[in-house]
Description:
This protein is mostly helical.
Amino acid sequence: MVRFFYFAFILLTNTLLSASNMNDIKQLRQEFNLAIEDSKKASNLYEELLKLKPAINTLQYAYLGATEALLAKHSFNPFSKLSYVNNALTKLNKAVALSDNNIEIRYMRFSVEANMPAYLGYSKHVVDDKNILIKGLKSALISKDNSEMYIVFANGIMTSNHCSKDEKILLTNIIEACNEAKLIKK
């Protein structure tokens, strides 16, 4: 009986620790990046985010939606894929409505919509999100702490089919500025 309580305590402690790690945005970003190519990690992250009741935190709510999009990516069942995508976009649209100038949230929605087949009609916000992202990146204070994230945003926009030649030049300059910021010692 003592072993059972010890096991239950360890299990509960690990669950609480992993849930509290999701409150740390850097940890959440790392877990999300790992989940992009790993369906098990995507499922685990989704479950952890659900435990947090992320509707209280707009950025966590957006990550919940983006993680649901990852579940769609990893699913083999077309009906499950469609359900996940619908739920993901509902959450991402709500997160954007609550925090419309947050470029991290905008990038999540842009990334999902820009990678959807056009015939599905899920790409309604791509141009608007792209324009807000570029405007946000142009005016952002680039630092060592945020440079990696901004490089991901700029590369994601550049590799989409929604970027003009002039925008690619601008984004290349932003990437260069980010790379310079990474070299600055604190």
